[in-house]
Amino acid sequence: MSCQNKLKQLGIAVHNYHDSVLAYPAFRCMKPGGENGTPPAAATWFSGRVALLPFLEMAPIFEQHKTTVFSGSWWSYWNPVQTSVLAVPIPAFYCPSDGVGFAKPTEHSTPANYRFCAGDNPLDNSTTPNRPNARGPFSPMTYYDFSAVTDGLSNTLMFTERCLPPLVGGDIKVKSAVYMSATSANVGLGSDLVTDRSVCLGKALGDEYKPVTGSDSIWGQECGWFYASGTLWNSAFTTHLPPNAPSCWLNANPYTMAMTASSYHPGGVNAVLMDGAVKFVQEGIDNGPSSVTGFPGGVVAGASPFGIWGAYGTRDGSESVPSLDRQ
Q: Which domain covers residue 102, as residue numbers?
């Protein structure tokens, strides 16, 4: 109930933000106050969560972000050694079921479980704004308003949650870590399409990943531990695979990623829809037939091939979906 209440408050914050600026934030957006430092590219890597802080009774933290100056690379901004603002706990972004707590090593910022919906296309993860294959309600450096959600606000996901990886040792849990492959064949992702979803799903061995081979690896150290970073691996999720499924990342292209929703709630995840309604989504929700092996990475239109979960991830797929109360 505590998690659901936090998601409800996030939904209200997005609506209040929309009322204020006539749009809602991108999942990766401009630093509050503009560039405010160098290099210029660093100013476009901020999470939309930062933009929501004033609407979550965290305006002083937002103002600190506005006045903090970059030092060196954009990466240095996330390091609390240089900016203490990132060390302040933001309870609104943290699910109490996760169990990790606010404790963190110096080189990481306060974490966040709650993420923006980036849609059903794991290839819509570039730093380029206004991507033609952006199918979710939230996209990098693209600010939609509610009229862009033509599927209906009650049929489109806004936020869900993802488990945080413990920052010790070599975590290999499916719910928190990410399988990283140097080649597309090993994760079912290519440069222009989803080649086979079963490949990523097959990396799971119970609740853990199968042992890696060759140049492949498992990333479990940073995903979700930088609440102010607008990268997909820190701020968004995709509906190309069902909740609590493995997450996979194509090393050859760091913006090609299937980032699944996950939680330690038994049997599924909590989510808030674009209309502000909070729902519990079962991990067994329909995610399309097993025969779905291809999905173009260019201009994509029409219904999601990834079942009910995929359809709830799109903003304009024109799908007919049942209520999540009748999964």
A: 2-166+227-245+259-326
pLDDT, tens only, 292-313: 777 765 567 889 999 999 999 9
Sequence-distant (6+) residues with CB within 8 A of 226 are 78, 86, 108, 109, 111, 234
Query: φ and ψ at 221, to 5 degrees?
Result: -110, -25
Q: Which residues contact 154 (CB under 8 A, 6 or more apart)?
A: 273, 274, 275, 277
3-state SS assignment for residue 253: coil
Give the tokens for residue 179.
């399988």
For residue 209, being part of any structural domain is answered with no
Whether residue 240 lies inside any domain: the answer is: yes
Report how many domains make up the chain. Answer: 1
184 is a domain residue: no
In a domain, 193, yes or no: no
- Supply φ then ψ for residue 30, to 5 degrees: -75, 145
Residue 79: the pLDDT is 59
Q: In terms of C-beta density within 10 A (0-12 exposed, 13-18 middle, 19 or more buried), how is residue 210 classed? A: middle
Q: What are the DSSP calls for 75-112, one per residue?
A: HHHT-TTT-GGGGS--GGG--TTS---S---TTS----
